[in-house]
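Entry 14. Ran structure prediction on the chain below.
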Amino acid sequence: MFSTITSGTVCGISSHLVQVEVDLSKGLPCFQMVGLLSSEVREARERVRVALKNSGIILPPVCINVNLSPADLRKEGTMFDLPVAVGILTCLGRLSKESTAGPAGGTGTERRGQAGTGRSACCHTGKGERDAKMYSAPG
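Output, structure tokens:
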């Protein structure tokens, strides 16, 4: 089971799209995250696992692999908790792939100039900071 969630991060004054790829496969139970992660992002494993458990969602004994790409961009902060959780829920069949088609996360960006279709607040940035607009997606 595989899912890809589009999110984003801020590096200095520029924003970058980040693909959160989640794969659930048979094997020894594990939760691995890769992609030049800071310690806060690595700790998302425990935060997501506890949040899902407290929401009544039991994770099956599978190997969960999460890749945050591009690999050459340092990922910092806790903004990837939501995309990781959404990716896991999509792989488990709790969310449809159509419902996760847009950006997810606190700093998701949309390059096409359209309102976000994800399940959280999305930001569209123009050429100047005065062109930035926040959109709230239904959900």
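The first helix runs from residue 39 to 42. Will compare against last week's run tomorrow.
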